[in-house]
């Protein structure tokens, strides 16, 4: 039986309202309002209180590990020298958490809190440990050396979560199989992310079309990070081979960081080479109202990624009744089911044919939209809340 008096600590490296993992921390907080949030870096959402659990501030020598990220190289000797001190530090920190009923560690990008789990697991009186696995982009799909190193270390130490947690939460069966490859989880609970019903009254798709001069255009929409593994290049190349010139590609998502900005410039240069730079629009991050407006304004939603552990934007696209074009990698087929049209993610001509097929067939558009509305019923907040509470209570 679930108790509302549970003392819960949630550890995460981020709490950004526009970051997928940060959004999930908000979602858990919605289910467990009294849960305490511990962040490895500063709180990006001052409306919700959070502790800053900054290990480097407590143990300044840990800052030397930042050299690894900056150089993009593993410094094995440095790690070997400090490992004994690190163990003492995390044993000491773990003892501070004995009065919590639940300790939940969010995991999709490396942060130090995962090293608490082995020490918490050995305590005689200890909280139940939950490892919330979000999936990790395969390092070979990352161009930046520093980010590739972070991904490698994220995967390497995911074993500590898989092996020591009482329960591992995942978004998809694909993620469950991925996690089994890292360690030996005791129990895996499938808990897909929900559609949150963001029907913003301030969303104005017609105004958005006028703002960008898209009144009589067909909008192909992508929402997500502008990173290499998202495979946006295949969409740009497909536009270059389309027989029609009224299709515009709108890219909504983070392009602030150096590697993301570099990918944006590479894609824009490709569009210039193909003679279609005016048909590619990068909006950057947008407000919730504008995000909903883009979903409502678009004609087709596209997800060309080479790796997805779940793909939350697909849930939103289906909920807004949009026909979806998608690759068949990772958990995309599991998330989307039959509510989309699949294409060869390495073949721009195949994507171009599928774009034409959808835009020229109103019956197909309606059928995909209807199947999406049916599929999205599997992703209700009520189901997510029930399964999360059950996982915590068991």
How much is the average pLDDT? 89
Low-confidence stretches: none
Helix-residue proportion: 40-55%
CATH class bucket of the largest domain: Alpha Beta
Number of strands: 13
What's the helix and strand layout?
Elements: E1 8-12, H1 20-31, E2 36-39, E3 51-52, H2 55-58, H3 66-71, H4 76-94, E4 102-107, H5 116-122, E5 128-133, H6 145-164, E6 167-170, H7 173-180, E7 188-190, H8 205-211, E8 218-223, H9 233-241, E9 247-252, H10 258-273, E10 280-284, H11 288-297, E11 300-303, H12 312-319, E12 324-326, H13 332-336, E13 341-342, H14 348-359, H15 362-375, H16 381-393
Parallel strand pairs: 1-2, 1-4, 2-3, 4-5, 5-6, 6-7, 8-9, 8-11, 9-10, 11-12, 12-13
Helix pairs in contact: 4-5, 8-11, 9-14, 12-15
Task: Offer a few descriptive terms.
single chain, 394 residues, alpha/beta, Rossmann fold, 2 domains, seven-stranded parallel β-sheet, six-stranded parallel β-sheet, 16 helices, 13 strands, 43% helix, globular
Task: Tell me what you see in this structure.
It is a single chain. The chain has 394 residues and is of the alpha/beta class. It has two domains: 8-191, Rossmann fold, CATH 3.40.50.11930; 205-378, 3-Layer(aba) Sandwich (Rossmann fold), CATH 3.40.50. The chain has 16 helices and 13 strands. Helix 9 packs across helix 14 and helix 12 packs across helix 15 (362-375). The longest helix has 20 residues, at 145-164. The protein is globular. It starts with 7 loop residues before the first strand and ends with a helix.
